[in-house]
Amino acid sequence: MLDNYVPLGGGDIRLYRAIREAVPVLDAAVMKIIRLAGGFEVKCGDRKTETELNEFLRTVNVGRSQRGIDAFLDNYLDSMLTCGRAVGEIVTDGNRDIAAVLCGNVCDVQVKEGLSPLDFVICGRSESGKFEPLPYQNLILFTPFNPEADSPYGVSIFRSMPFLAEILLKIYNSIGINWDRAGNVRYAVVYKPQGDIIDKAYARERSEQIAREWSTAMQSGKNGSVRDFVAVGDVEIKVIGADSQILDSEVPVRQILEQLVSRTGIPPFMLGLNWSSTERMSAQQADLMTSELTAIRRTLTPVVEQICDLWLRMHCRNCSFEVCWEPINLQDAVEEAKAALYEAQAEKMANMDI
Prior knowledge:
Elements: H1 11-22, H2 24-36, E1 40-44, H3 47-59, E2 61-63, E3 66-67, H4 69-83, E4 85-92, E5 98-103, E6 109-113, E7 120-125, E8 131-133, E9 140-144, H5 162-183, E10 187-192, H6 197-201, H7 203-222, E11 234-239, H8 250-264, H9 279-314, E12 321-325, H10 333-353
Antiparallel strand pairs: 1-12, 2-3, 4-5, 4-9, 6-7, 7-8, 10-11
């Protein structure tokens, strides 16, 4: 599937999902980004409205036996990172309230642009199979991830990975084949007749006898018993491929993983890859990751604001609100514990001096 990669609509999404399934470190990187994005709460000018709105966000139905806007944003962000865009739907009921907020499949919708970049509609398949504008466009959530100027669709973080991912999979596949051969050894039994007349006359019969005895000895070993192999004459036994050296894959695998992981923006040490040689380098990578998460939050904030704004209008509440994200903290818990210990020791020593 990766050999014949052509970036056509719909096929690229299946390719990106295949890459994520085939390379576990990339799947872990996406899950790390989703977890590190964190939660939020909404601040309103009216305290009662703020309490009711946050309670709605905590308990809203998001489908598939899940509740809470956090579960919705996890699926929404997962689709946005993997597919380059995410689509959702706000479901209302007859009681002037929001019944559910659901994620959709990006392959089921298309964007139809108008005369200007500000004029576009979301289209879905009709009963005839054609893409037609969906009703209630104000209830549809659509977010492209880092969209380009000539396309309304976003860019997946896996867009630049197919070539390197294909090489990485070939390396791992060859490693598996080599180890399979190492565990399932093949032997070459060579019988060399001597120069006398008897050996030359019975060379064929002795070769067939040696082959039978060797086959019997190997079959007994498979059954758990030990059987000696006895032969007369000049018989040489070699392991096929024992002289060939297995290539060292550490350097090429690391070079490829460095390229793949750098695209995700996740520091390598967060994925269990010990590439950072200094503590300062890890701290700088954590700072860069904080900037990446802040940018992702800026992309998700309009989605949350659209949901909150609709809830306020449906409940006839006229007050301003603000989406406040939780502080991003990538500090090591061990270092924080050490700092707390040092402070406690310093305070204890100060009390002893008094």
